[in-house]
Amino acid sequence: GNSVTQMEGPVTLSEEAFLTINCTYTATGYPSLFWYVQYPGEGLQLLLKATKADDKGSNKGFEATYRKETTSFHLEKGSVQVSDSAVYFCALSPKSGGNKLVFGAGTILRVKS
Amino acid sequence: DTGVSQDPRHKITKRGQNVTFRCDPISEHNRLYWYRQTLGQGPEFLTYFQNEAQLEKSRLLSDRFSAERPKGSFSTLEIQRTEQGDSAMYLCASSFLAGGVGDEQFFGPGTRLTVL
User: Fold this and answer.
1) How far is CA A29 from CA A68, A92, B46, in A?
2) How many CB pairs under 8 A join A and B?
3) Residue B32 C-alpha, separation from nearest chain A C-alpha, in angstroms
4) Residues near A28 by Cβ (< 8 Å), separated by ≥ 6?
5) Which residues does residue A44 pair with via DSSP β-bridges, in sequence order?
6) Rounded Cα gap, residues A30 and A52, in angstroms
7) Which candidate from A43, A49, A100 shows the least CB-CB separation from B102?
């Protein structure tokens, strides 16, 4: 079946630190991959996506590369800000089956000034 | 604001009561999805519609759950005879499918259900 595993949190970093949140997946075929973010008190928002192997998604300084060999889609940012504090969800969408999303459990990121 | 809206935002009910939630998608979005999220977990897929047709239901959706999308616009999710295990955040999302893959789903703020 389809599943997503992401690193447990919370992850606590100082401002301007480098961020990595690991995400690996299990899927039939080659799904599309996503990172969603949920800021405090807000709904889920798409952060970035990649639809095929070796694609790199990027947005707001965040980036992630679709690695078919390692079935991974790790989220990185070179210099985090306090405003990046949120819950980050890795997700996949199978190419068939209505594009429904399969989410990981989420990783809480806390950035301290 | 023309995003996805959900009503109510919070619902507290007693075990055994029926509840109904409403989702208004972004206009002209032809796909509408329902997910359920419990504390500390990611959202789990429940069901989705393309226009007015319900195309898939998760095994999570027991017989007590029913969803509709009359006329392909807003959708309702009803839970009959609620149980404490139904307490969760119910999320609605919509997207526009034009034959591609990886279409972005836009999420609403959710309805938080508490069953006492």
Assistant:
1) 10, 11, 22
2) 64
3) 10
4) A1, A2, A94
5) none
6) 7
7) A49
Contact A95 B44 (CB under 8 A): no
Minimum distance, in Å, between the CA of residue A34 and any CA atom of chain B? 9
Between A29 and A96, whose confidence is greater?
A: A29
Other residues' Cβ atoms within 10 Å of the Cβ of residue B99: 5
The pLDDT, as a whole number, for residue A11 is: 96
Burial class of B13 by CB neighbour count within 10 A (0 to 12, 13 to 18, 19+): middle
Can you list the residues of chain B whose pLDDT is less than 70?
A: 1, 99-102
> Which chain A residues are within 8 Å of B95, Cβ to Cβ?
99
Secondary structure (H, E, C), B73-100: CCEEEEECCCCHHHCEEEEEEEECCCCC
Give per-residue pLDDT as tens, B53-82: 999 999 888 899 999 999 889 999 999 999
